[in-house]
Write the structure tokens for this entry.
Amino acid sequence: MEIKKASKLDPKENLIFLITNEKELPTASFTKEELSFIKKELKSEQKQIEINRLHTYVFVVLCENKENDYKSAEKIRIAANNLLTTLNNKKVASATVVGETNKITSFVEGIGLANYQFLKYFSDKKVNTFNKLSYYTESKSDNIKEIEALVEAANFAKDLVNEPVSFLTAVQLSKEIQKIGKEAGFKVEVFNKSKIEALKMGGLLAVNKGSVDPPTFNVLEWKPAKFKNKKPIVLVGKGVVFDTGGLSLKPTANSMDFMKCDMSGAAAVVGAMYAVAKNKLPYHVIALIPATDNRPGGNAYVPSDVITMHNGKTVEVLNTDAEGRMVLADALSYAQKYKPELVIDIATLTGAAAAAIGHYGIVAMGNADDQTFTKLKTSGNNVYERIVEFPFWDEYNEQLKSSIADLTNLGNGMGGAITAGKFLENFTDYPYIHLDIAAPAFLKKQINYLSQGGTGVGVRLFYDFIKNY
């Protein structure tokens, strides 16, 4: 969708006015009859008011406008989604939105995310008619270009998640990362299977044993000339491009049907790197993405196998469907070489996290300090990808004890989201946060401006966190 700034209001254009109350109505833009109608609708508590001028439409959208209130911003995003449905139903192609800059920012974000479509595999592509949004504000400065890049990043992440494994193998994922890295300006290095073997990434190699396609390990880096952090922030994303469960084949009905989304963590960090680089944030950021599919073919790894990981620790495999932590562990271990200031991993890791809070937020845990968690939670509120912090007590490590190896890759079922996080902590030596996005990463139906299928969750969260770091 094209977004541009308007220097003046065009009376021949469709118009959208964002107001908080009746006093903000630009009376010069309406006839007396129109004003009377709008005021009547406002009194009856209508949030979206429509005027048909035969050749154009005028919409008045009632918005909350509490300064620095994240709930108000979210309501404007939702209002943008609701209006977009009307615009597309009426076959409207373009419009100009008018209002205060902070309202326009949230509106542009909401409508840009909501207008996303993944039409690649349709022979009859029913493209949304609305494709051009102009904005008019009396403010001399705005951050719409920044928001536009952020929306592009989130929508690109959705594309990756929505791609089937028939296209998006681990190798193809790396090619897509290289392509977007070139566009945004961040560096990409891709390790092939022989390099992964040389690095002794036993977890990634074990999960890949059942596949005919090789794994990849991707290193993304944004390092501007002048950056504020002395040591890098490292993001780690799970890149399991499809998960059958391996030989521990997924037992739950329909649970495998949407497992192309098991690389949503990888998509989130790629999207975040795109937005960070495109908007030239002054921070040194590195992203690591271990990528493979998890299948039961060939010489697939089996329950009872003992795997030697990248850091030399041994893991007894109790369930091959607990594969995400195996590939992430190698990446977290590899991250130690950067002596990072902070590492955050993001993954569709456990059904336990999804069962605990549903699609309404992100489960988080870790050993980073309270101030870092507070900043991350604030960013979660800002973009409405809210964070619920779970306990991270050492007692959960008791569930990971093995009789023949250093660790098992599975707890006993109690606190499963946390034992997965505690497993991963064994491969860190730095401040660390684990994010489980098992529920919000992929939706079976659209919810407000969150698309059906891949949602791009994590992209905007990471961007806001790094921007305000």
User: Anything to note?
Assistant: The longest strand covers residues 285-294. Residues 148-467 form a domain with the Aminopeptidase fold (CATH 3.40.630.10). The two ends are 30 Å apart (CA to CA). Residues 82 and 363 are 28 Å apart (CA to CA).
